Amino acid sequence: MEKESKSFWKLFCTSTFITCFRTVCSFCLHKFLAVVFGPSTFALVGQFQNFISIGQGVSSLALQNGWVSLSARYKNDECLAGIWRGGFCLSVFAMFAFMALAVIFTFLAPLEEMFPGISRRGIQAAILFALPGIAVSNFVAICLSVLNGLGLYYRYAILALSVSLLQTLWVVILVYTKSLSLLSVIATQSLLTIAVALPIASRAGFSLSQLKTKSALHFENRKIWIPFIAMGLIPMLLTPISLTFIRQMLHVTQGLEIAGLWQGVSKISDFFNVAVSSILGIILLPKISESMSEESFKKTFYPLLIRILGISGFAALVLFFLRDEVVYLFLSEKFAAASPLLSFQLLGDFLHAGGWCCGMVLIALRKTKKFLFLEIFFQIFLVLVTWLCLSRFGAYSPVITYALENFLYFIVAFIFVRKISWKNL
Fold this sequence. Notes:
The chain is mainly alpha-helical. The chain has helices spanning 2-60, 64-73, 80-108, 111-114, 120-149, 153-177, 182-187, 194-203, 214-218, 226-254, 256-289, 294-321, 323-330, 339-364, 368-393, 397-418.
């Protein structure tokens, strides 16, 4: 038990350092955008980032958790290269299909309504610029996931830190020098990261040449990825879609300024959730993905759940008492009215940590139906209840619903984990 505790805190400190660095970079970037452009443009940037998120999900089939889980499970098996090849081929096919759909969307969609105040040509250019950026981002995400699954945390840390730094510098420098339009800069921020990802991943044993070996061809396996496609793609698509619906509802009923305030609160929430998900992705997912008995699972999972809830609860409480300062620090004085919204959002973030901890277990053990039920039902719940509560709670509707949604998600997900049948694993 003492050894497990030391291992946890070692990995926790490593993942916390990486997360803090990435959070600082993200904070600097969004602080810069908030100060320069204000709430209205900030809302449009969030809208475009949601489009990019959808593109990344579709084009990569949202297989990041699959890359971590399968790399951890088969890292000492000769079939690993074949599994990697299967996943990579699926991702390449999906990327080409997405590019074709994106070009059609660019010329047929009512872009002026989605991005009021920006010229159609400007939006079209940004979407086309985003395509190579998304392809690079997908490859870098694969490299990070493989390094995580193999337990190569030093290489993982170098790549993760480099990616965050390069993306931040790209946006700040190009926006400051006005080299491209704002949306085009956001679209291309991942391009330089491939120069770092290729050599680091190659030295760890993951490279394009490795995927062409006889062993990779002999053991190529695509079917093993299907559960991870469903569990990754559907939530990755549903989340930005549901956020887009909520943003549009706020825009129509409360005004673009209110939508921008909510967007700012959501960005602060993203910092919180990225920290928790990063820690769980490094500590929990690889460990649960390895062969494990019911007894060892209980010794690993429940202490970890308690620690995560304690850490996230403490962090949420600190942010609650400093919420005015947090809004000013992460955004600007223009977002002062967002401070009351942050209280409910932080409660939801705390509950989200527990729910995501249980969700990671369902992903690692490939409990596809249960995980998809949680994601689909509660995303619909979030949008529907927000809409029903708008007339009563106004701008508070999405943050109150967010807290309620995560409370119910945590309860149901915990019940699912408790009832896992280990005989069938």
